[in-house]
Amino acid sequence: MEANTVKESFETKGQDEQSTESMKLPIPIILCGKAVEMGEMVSRLIQPELQVIHFINTFEDAKAHLGSLVAGHGPKSPSSNHVGTHDYSKPPRAVIFGRGYSAAHVKELYHLFRGKASHPIAWIAGDPDVKPPTFPPGQNYAEKAADNVKRAFAKWSDAGGVNEDLVYY
Questions:
Q1: Which residue intervals make up region (Disordered) (predicted)?
Q2: How many angstroms separate the CA atoms of 76 and 98, rounded?
Q3: Average pLDDT estimate for 59-88
Q4: What is the pLDDT of residue 91?
Q5: How far apart, in whole angstroms, are the C-alpha atoms of residue 84 and residue 52?
Q6: What is the pLDDT of residues 9-62, one digit of tens each?
Q7: In angstroms, rounded to a whole number, what is the distance separating the alpha carbons of residues 78 and 84?
Q8: Where are the alpha helices (DSSP H) in the chain?
Q9: Closest Cα partner for 169 from 157, 151, 156, 154?
């Protein structure tokens, strides 16, 4: 049975199945998207279960900083935007790509940085077989994106949260 929310997903698991501190709410994540404004909205809408600690809005920045971030360190240089808490005291449990990132870029980043964290993290991206929205996206896009992110993370968590396969929404 798929959990309705990330919170329900963790509340239904026993303490032994949780990764102690790293799976306590809110769960720190890295969000990658092209539009800062959309990142702000999605970041707010996925709370309180998920908390964006860093937002990356270019492929170049992702290549430069994602390795350090998934390893549990801060970025190599200050963030170019204000989205996220910028609290790097807890390592991220997920890297989530918005639909602005191409399937090729997602796969390249995934192959470069998969396995660099001290624990498994979720790698979540839009299904490459589903056409992304035109830009600017329509009304309620941020709400739909936030819901997709929560459901994809819950799916990964419900499967044990121990693999680093790409999870598509």
A1: 1-20
A2: 22
A3: 93
A4: 96
A5: 5
A6: 544 443 344 444 446 789 999 999 999 999 999 999 999 999 999 999 999 999
A7: 12
A8: 6-11, 36-45, 59-70, 103-113, 141-158
A9: 151
Sign of the CA dihedral with 71 first, then 76, 78, and 79 last: negative
pLDDT band at 81 (very low <50, low <70, confident <90, very high): confident
Q: Residue 163: CB partners within 8 Å, gap ≥ 6?
A: 120, 156
Q: Partners of 97 in the beta sheet?
A: 32
Report whether pLDDT(84) > 60. Answer: yes
28 in Cβ contact with 51 (< 8 Å): yes
pTM above 0.70, yes or no: yes
* Opening angle at CA 139, ends 137 and 143, nearest 5: 90
Does residue 48 have a cis peptide bond before it, meaning omega lies within 30 degrees of 0?
Answer: yes
- The structure tokens listed for 103 are 């399937």
The residue extents of the domains of the chain are: 27-168
Residue that the structure tokens 């102690």 belong to:
20
